[in-house]
Amino acid sequence: MRMKQLASVLIFVGAGVCATQASAQFDGLYAPVAPPKSVNLGMVELGKKLYFDPRLSKSGFISCNSCHNLSMGGTDNIRTSIGDKWQQGPINSPTVLNSSLNLAQFWDGRAADLKEQAGGPIANPGEMAFSHTLAIDMLASIPAYVREFKLVFGKDKVDIDQVTDAIAEFEKTLVTPNSRFDQYLLGNKTAMTKDELAGYKLFNESGCVACHNGPNLGGNSFQKMGVVEAYKGNVEGRAAVTGKDADRFNYKVPTLRNVELTYPYFHDGNSDTLGEAVDVMGRLQLGKKFTKAENDQIVAFLKTLTGEQPVFRLPILPPSSDKTPRPTPFN
Q1: Does a structural domain hold residue 319?
Q2: Residues 81, 200 share a domain
Q3: CATH of the domain at 219
Q4: Which of 1, 40, 256, 278 has the maximum number of C-beta atoms within 10 A of its C-beta?
Q5: Rounded to whole angstroms, what are the CA distances from 140 to 55, 101, 164, 265?
Q6: Residues 257 and 179 sit within 8 Å (Cβ to Cβ)
């Protein structure tokens, strides 16, 4: 009996070693997620307050965290986000986690960095539906905010550049290191199971790695959705920014970090499960139909990409003063 058990263990270990060796050639195409090298702590604390403050919206109800919920993988887990007056957004909300590793922000890359992105939703009539001027007037009417802005930036007057700088600085801290895949990359070859290693091998050898590589396993290029088979959708993608017809249905490749948490998937949120997303990507991008077993193995690998989630004390927002304009959520 013991000999049979030992044989089973040796077979399992041997299979794991083979899968590891077969995938090792691809390891250099990835990198572990690392904590931010340096941040301004005062700016981070201010940015954290602003990230959670719904008074930056016309309704006084929507904050950055509404669509990028840090308790839900930095997303809202619905197909397209909800904006002012219950408007249905046109596109799925991408995760804010590890977004500092992306080459640009938004699905179409219209914002070059986190600072530029942070100002967009505030003034978007379909999102927070405020204006930068009204947002600054609101903040300037709250003495505690005025004092904190002066302490952080050394200026008497609050402006939108300070607001977006602070939010961006906070978002730089929203990284998720120490996933089991990171542990594997750092040398712990037992951090992943046999099925997960088999899924990693399939992920690489099937061609997924061509777009999903680097520390964020994505986020570093724009690619067409529907290479082998056309994808049925009505969101123009990168063409809305460049004006080039060739960029239609081109989108920023999403990060696969924490992908287990960031459902539903794609720019339109049209795939509810990881298994469905793997099937669609295989057919449309690679011309490959994964078997049920192969799909399960790839999904198992993708779940090793869930890292340590940001943990911090929720900010206590400074109270409005008598002069602070009151929200108008219903008109």
Answers
A1: no
A2: no
A3: 1.10.760.10
A4: 278
A5: 12, 32, 15, 39
A6: yes
- 127 in active site: yes
Q: Are 130 and 194 in the same domain?
A: no
For residues 130 and 235, state if they share a domain: no
Q: Are residues 56 and 11 in the same domain?
A: no
Domain membership of residue 321 (yes or no) is no
Task: Quote the pTM value.
Answer: 0.92
* 91 within some domain: yes
Q: Count how many Cα atoms sit within 13 Å of the Cα of residue 151 in the half-sphere of its side chain.
A: 13
Q: Residue 151's domain spans which residues?
A: 41-172
Kindly name the residue from 127, 169, 171, 196 that is annotated as catalytic: 127
Sign of torsion, CA 65 66 72 78?
A: negative
Q: How many distinct structural domains can be found in the chain?
A: 2
Separation of alpha carbons 49 and 142, rounded Å: 13
pLDDT tens per residue across all 331 residues of the chain: 444 443 443 333 444 444 555 568 999 999 999 999 899 999 999 999 999 999 999 999 999 999 999 999 999 999 999 999 999 999 999 999 999 999 999 999 999 999 999 999 999 999 999 999 999 999 999 999 999 999 999 999 999 999 999 999 999 999 999 999 999 999 999 999 999 999 999 999 999 999 999 999 999 999 999 999 999 877 789 999 999 999 999 999 999 999 999 999 999 999 999 999 999 999 999 999 999 999 999 999 999 999 999 999 999 999 999 999 999 999 8
164 and 116 Cβ atoms separated by less than 8 Å: yes
Contact at 8 Å (CB) between 327 and 53?
Answer: no
Same domain? For 203 and 245 the reply is yes
